[in-house]
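Per reviewer request, we include the raw input and output of the structure prediction for the construct analysed in the revised manuscript.
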Amino acid sequence: MESVTQQLRKVILLIVTLATCSCNKTVTVDVVVILTRSDYIYGDTRILPALEIARETISHRVERGEYANFTISWVYYSTGCSHQERLSVGLAAKRYFFNNTMAFFGPTCSNNLLSVADFASFYNITVLSGSASSHDLDDKNRFPTLTQTVYKPTAMVNFVNELFKEFNWDSCALIRGGSDVFTLAGEAFEEIMQEAERTVFILELNDTDNNFEYTLQQTREDYRSKYPVILWLGLTPSHRIMIHPLLIAV
């Protein structure tokens, strides 16, 4: 499965390719990038590398003559995530009216993207987001120019819910934790389990070794022999748990 950054890079290159193929005259592509500061799970430190790789790739293609009659300009803005809707759409509008912007990348938070995507829809501007995942953004009638490369937490949650139906499970132990997107999906999973009147035993996992050992010990002693154990974590902690003797021992 491709990462969000790989998907972002491919879509950026596609937009540039379409722009340069659309006419014979010189094309100037102005791009506005609105990212969230690095304290957010999909902050600028995670998204910006994909954009920089795309910029380098575009520059090399221009040098080789693959993109003819073409120039590109980028401007980066960094905002917070909470209560920044007016700031995000204000930055987008200012750049568009003064520079005839062709594409917006971001914002990365759903609440900010909603306002920018509404603005972009009215003026028929391309919008790409690699992290915002609100259900409201799925409305293509409202947001016809928006493309999202982020995975949908609901798809993962619904898949696990179907497993419960298939095997007639009515309860599980859920190990969750960390400051990444799996925390958000875990919360959605809990809600669906509660709606289906299933029992979910929550075990919180943080980065300390003592907590790690305690959580696995608790899982083995209290849950593993009785319930399915769901690991709602990123790749590294999930792998660490799966190979740990406290969990795999009978």
